[in-house]
Design brief:
Length: 271
């Protein structure tokens, strides 16, 4: 497995693979890797001949009051996990490589980016779309893989790829969960022992809504078991993220974000 730090070095390696006629997959990550990320790598290895994994904690998707400074980082551990998983190349650029002095361009997103997370984190998806576009244009993969755990992010990236005619297939990979249902997330490390015991109730609540429970009842129930605040818990159209229309016959998604102590958990299930 090779480690590169610059766009030029990355492009040189990809060009060499292209010359050999090989298909390339990209797995964008912010590091602090867990089994969910390794599942993405496994899916990438099945989808392509060569797999590039990027590790970059993207500052433009964090608001000033959010957890950029304390976001978990473990490059050494990440590299060991990726080598064990069979990744071919890791691209770990510095912030100055991605956003050099004078950088002044940003993608503005609407559509799937506006509701839910867009209401509570209005600048988040602009930062996500900008960095993912840069990652894709640097690596020029045939396929880029993203976890369904961040389902709205996946919808926004698919919309961006369609709207900008990016020559890449955006592939979603199912959420990896603990045995008790908690979705794997780097932010789970913030949970106390007591909070970790309560956290799976979020998955239980959204699963009940997918089976027909009133979302308002499910949100109220979360507050009774220890969650401090529910930002949203709603049934949405799985493609557009517009409010779900019962009887439409379209695939739906229940999405939720809720606070447990100082940790904000998100999750979703399809129906």
């Amino acid at each position: 497995m090779e480690l590169v730090r610059t766009i030029n070095h990355l492009r040189a390696e990809v060009a060499r693979w292209r010359t050999d006629g090989q298909r390339i997959a990209l797995v964008p990550t912010m590091g602090a890797l867990h089994a969910g990320h390794i599942a993405l790598v496994g899916a990438a290895l099945s989808a392509a001949d060569k797999t590039v994994v990027s590790i970059f904690v993207n500052p433009t998707q964090f608001a000033p009051h959010e957890d950029l400074a304390r976001y978990p980082r473990d490059e050494g551990g990440d590299l060991a996990k990726l080598a064990g998983a069979g990744a071919h190349l890791v691209w770990a650029p510095a912030v100055t490589e991605m956003y050099p002095e004078g950088f002044a361009t940003r993608i503005a997103v609407e559509g799937a980016a506006l509701p839910l997370e867009g209401t509570f984190r209005p600048h988040h998806f602009g930062g996500v779309a900008t960095v993912v576009c840069k990652l894709i244009l640097a690596a020029m993969p045939d396929v880029a893989l993203f976890g369904e755990k961040d389902f709205q992010q996946l919808a926004v990236i698919r919309q961006m790829a369609r709207d900008l005619a990016l020559p890449v297939l955006i592939q979603g990979v199912p959420t990896v969960r603990e045995e008790d249902g908690l979705a794997l997330s780097s932010r789970n490390a913030y949970l106390s022992e007591d909070e970790r015991y309560v956290a799976p109730m979020l998955f239980k609540a959204i699963s009940e809504v997918a089976r027909g429970r009133d979302p308002r009842e499910a949100a109220a129930a979360l507050l009774t078991v220890g969650f401090g605040k529910v930002d949203y818990l709603e049934a949405r159209d799985a493609e557009t993220l517009a409010p779900y229309v019962p009887g439409s016959g379209r695939p739906g998604r229940v999405l939720a974000a809720a606070w447990l102590g100082k940790t904000r958990l998100i999750d979703n299930v399809g129906f």
